[in-house]
Specification:
mainly alpha; Rossmann fold; globular; two-stranded parallel ribbon; 3-stranded parallel beta sheet; binds tryptophan
Length: 332
C-alpha cells in the first residue's frame, strides 16, 4: 500500500490522571506531528486492565483522556483519535504476536519486573504479555515512528524485534517502527523523590502535578517540592530536586538553564519554587478550560470516538487480513 505520509502512532493509558511529565515529555509535542505524519492516538483501555480498575473510573478516564488530548491541541480532524477496545483488531493481532514473542524476551522487560514487584498479588498473564498488545497497536498501522517517553523505549525495541522476526518468516508484512524519544522534559521527576520518574500512579499526591490540578494545588505542590540544602538556583549533578524544577521551568518558559540561573541569582529556593508553580499554572489554564468545555458534552466525545474507531479500523483491517493470509488462516 502506498502511504501519503509516514505514520506516527502513540498510546496513553487511561489508568491515571495525566501529569505534567506526560504533557512535557509527550503530548505537548504531538500537535506539530500532524504536519509531517499521519497520526494515530489511541487511549489504551485494554492495557489498563493489566492492573485492577474500578469500572466507573476506567470509563470516566477514557472520556477524560480523549478530551485531554484534544484540549492539549490535537485536532480530531487532522489526527485519528480513538479507543483501543473499539478496534478489535488490536486484541486479535496481539494473540498472533504472542506466538512470535519469546518468554525470555518478555521476562527481561523492566516494566514487567517493576509492575510485578508493585502488584505482587496480581502478576497476571496480561501484565506479562503487555508488550505484545503494544506491538499489535503499533504494527497494525504500518507505523514508522512511535513518540514515547523513554521508559517505553524497551517495549518499542521489542516490537521491532518481533516485527523483524515475523518479516523474516513472512516477508514484507510489517513496517519496522522507530521510537522517537522526546528530549526536553522526557524525564520529569517526582517532586517528592526527584531521583524517580514522575509517575501518574504515585500514591503520594504531593509527588505529582496533574494536568487538571487547580492553581492553588499546583503552587502548593511546588512549594513542598524536595530540594537540597544549598540555596542557589543552579543546575548541577546531584541537585536532583532543583534540576527537575529547572527542567520544568525551562519547558514552560523556553528559557535555558543559564538564563534561569541569572534570573534567580541571589534569590532563594522559595522564590524559585513559587515561580515554577506560577508558570505551570499559567500554562495549564487554557488546557483546563478547553477540557471542561469538552467534558460537558459527552455526545460530542462519543461521536469523535466513533469517527476515530472507523478510521482506525480500516487501516487495522488491512494489516490484519494480510497477516492472517500469510499465516495460513482461512479467510471467508
Ligand atoms: N505502554 C505505553 C505506556 O504505558 C502505552 C502504549 C500502549 C503505547 N500502546 C502503545 C505507546 C503504542 C506507544 C505506542 O506509556
Amino acid at each position: 500500500m502506498q502511504k501519503e505520509k509516514p505514520v506516527s502512532f502513540s498510546g496513553i493509558q487511561p489508568s491515571g490522571n495525566l501529569t505534567i511529565g506526560n504533557y512535557l515529555g509527550a503530548i505537548r509535542n504531538f500537535p506539530a506531528y500532524s504536519e509531517n505524519y499521519k497520526c494515530f492516538y489511541c487511549v489504551v483501555d485494554l492495557h489498563a486492565l493489566t492492573v485492577r480498575q474500578v469500572p466507573a473510573e476506567l470509563r470516566r478516564r477514557t472520556y477524560e483522556t480523549l478530551a485531554l488530548y484534544i484540549a492539549c491541541g490535537l485536532d480530531p480532524e487532522k489526527n485519528t483519535l480513538f479507543v483501543q477496545s473499539h478496534v478489535p483488531a488490536h486484541s486479535e493481532l496481539a494473540w498472533i504476536l504472542d506466538c512470535f514473542t519469546m518468554f525470555g524476551e518478555l521476562s527481561r522487560m523492566t516494566q514487567f519486573k517493576e509492575k510485578s514487584a508493585k502488584h505482587a498479588d496480581n502478576i497476571n498473564a496480561g501484565l506479562f504479555t503487555y508488550p505484545s498488545l503494544m506491538a499489535a497497536d503499533i504494527l497494525l498501522y504500518q507505523t514508522d515512528v512511535v513518540p514515547v517517553g523513554d521508559d517505553q523505549k524497551q517495549h518499542v525495541e521489542l516490537c521491532r524485534d518481533v516485527a523483524q522476526r515475523f518479516n523474516n518468516l513472512y516477508p514484507d508484512t510489517f513496517t519496522i517502527p522507530e521510537p522517537i524519544i522526546s528530549q526536553s522534559g522526557a524525564r520529569i521527576k517526582s517532586l517528592a523523590e526527584p531521583t524517580r520518574k514522575m509517575d501518574k500512579s504515585d500514591p503520594n499526591p504531593n509527588a505529582v502535578v496533574y494536568l487538571l490540578d487547580d492553581r492553588d494545588t499546583i503552587i502548593r505542590k511546588f512549594k513542598r517540592a524536595v530540594t537540597d540544602s544549598e540555596t542557589s538556583v543552579r543546575y548541577a549533578p546531584g541537585k536532583d530536586g532543583i534540576n527537575n524544577l529547572m527542567t520544568i521551568y525551562s519547558c514552560f518558559t523556553g528559557k535555558d538553564f543559564a538564563a534561569i540561573e541569572a534570573e534567580f541569582a541571589g534569590r532563594g529556593y522559595s522564590d524559585f519554587k513559587l515561580a515554577v508553580g506560577e508558570v505551570t499554572a499559567d500554562a495549564l489554564a487554557p488546557v483546563q478550560a478547553e477540557f471542561r468545555r469538552l467534558m460537558a458534552d459527552k455526545t460530542y466525545i462519543e461521536d469523535l470516538m466513533r469517527k476515530g474507531a472507523r478510521e482506525a479500523a480500516i487501516c487495522a483491517a488491512r494489516t490484519l487480513t494480510k497477516v492472517k493470509k500469510k499465516l495460513g488462516l482461512v479467510l471467508i
